[in-house]
Write a structure and sequence with these properties.
Helices cover 60% and strands 6% of the residues. By secondary structure, it is mostly helical. The radius of gyration is 16 Å and the shape is globular. 13% of the residues are buried.
Length: 129
Amino acid sequence: MIIEIDFNSDEAIYIQLTNQIIMGIAADTIREGDSLPSVRQLADHIGINMHTVNKAYSVLRQEGFITLDRRKGAIIALAEDKAGAMDEMKRGLQVLLARGRCKQISKEEVHALIDEIYQEYDAGRQGGE
């Protein structure tokens, strides 16, 4: 998995890192049981502070995407809380859809965009098998 950080972005680096790891899981480029690099290794590889990587890993752990083990490091371990994930997704989508509606983005355009994104993740899964 390739991590690309945009140092000119307004989005915090730890959020960019967190989101890219989640997208890597969704695209199946990293899978359940895979180990992530150590905090030090990833920080050195990307050229960022170790505390930033540690914060991203902490968020991923809190959100149920990884477990942290002193001996094994960060391991992809997806929590089985679908109901909680659906509630969280709904809260996030409410704001995004409100923004889109204010910009006259139709329901059909949103559905087409969602289909496009899911196809990208499906293509990633098929390419990795």
